[in-house]
Design a protein that fits this description.
about 150 residues, about 0% strand, about 65% helix
């Protein structure tokens, strides 16, 4: 008994479609102006949104950096949340001393402003001191006995 292989039937003719890319019927100068305007808008959004964008980008980078450690800890039997907590704590323990050393590097001779994180830390400390003084004054005026 011989099995004959049957040739596959030819594919029916397939319809071919050609799709033309959409074009904007604007003069080249208007296209360039629109591109420049869009680039300026994106730069402005990134500039004014940097207080949000920078931490989000750093969080994403931290996520990628600690992901292998989280997976290793999960293989040892830790749950997802404890593994992530241990990994983030380890990352902070490794990075924080270096960041503090960089922040404490003195600036060039004669510089009036301190480099790194110290101006931001000074600003936060000054703001906290102002809040504490305001609360103390408010407490003294509100809780003072009436004469």
């Amino acid at each position: 008994m011989s099995h004959e292989q049957k040739a596959a039937p030819p594919h029916p003719a397939r319809a071919t479609f050609s799709v033309e890319p959409a074009t904007v019927n604007a003069p080249p100068l208007a296209n360039r102006a629109l591109a420049v305007l869009a680039a300026c808008a994106i730069i402005a959004l990134l500039h004014f949104g940097r207080a949000i964008v920078v931490p989000v980008i750093l969080a994403a980078l931290l996520c990628f950096a600690i992901n292998p450690l989280v997976h290793a800890l999960r293989r040892f039997g830790l749950g997802r949340l404890p593994a992530a907590f241990v990994a983030v704590t380890a990352a902070v323990a490794v990075v924080a001393p270096g960041a503090c050393m960089i922040a404490l590097i003195p600036g060039p001779a004669g510089a009036t402003e301190r480099p790194g994180l110290l101006p931001a830390i000074d600003h936060v400390a000054t703001s906290c001191e102002d809040v504490v003084r305001t609360l103390q004054t408010l407490a003294e005026t509100t809780l003072a006995p009436a004469a």
